[in-house]
Amino acid sequence: MQISNKAFFKRPIIGLLIKENHKSRLIKKQKPLHKHIPLIKANESFNLLMYFFAMTDITIDKGYVLGIYYDDDSKTWLEKDFPLPDIIYKLFPSKKSYKTDVFLKVIKKLGIKSLNYINSFDKWQLYNDLIKY
After folding, report:
1. Hey, which CATH number is domain 6-130, 3.30.1890, 3.30.450, 3.40.50, 3.30.9?
2. pLDDT of 86-115, one tens digit each?
3. How far apart are the two ends of the chain, measured CA to CA in Å?
4. CA angle 88, 3, 61 (to 5 degrees)
5. Cβ distance 19 to 94 under 8 Å?
6. Where are the domains of the chain?
7. Burial, 13: exposed, middle or buried (Cβ in 10 Å; 0-12, 13-18, 19+)?
């Protein structure tokens, strides 16, 4: 499946990056984590395309992400292929690792913006990043 045309969706497309185990929990238990609920509710007023996904869910060569969304008709959380997000918001702490380094290179190459640090950071690094503005 090739999902390359983002024009059909209201922009920006938001991908909420979650851990693999949070993804399985969402599908199996059909209940988001408490900390995810404010984001879900906030998006109701904006009505943007927003989905949950894990690092391993991006299929770069085909231009899509296997994401989880809430289906209003069936009242369940389902998996579906979505276009790559314009923005990623990471919802869990992580340490620098090979896996996250590769992921960062991929999203940078694709021009996807991140609202927060994908890797953990220190206050000095944050200061140096913000002082530029």
Report:
1. 3.40.50
2. 988 888 766 666 677 777 788 888 888 887
3. 41
4. 80
5. no
6. 6-130
7. buried
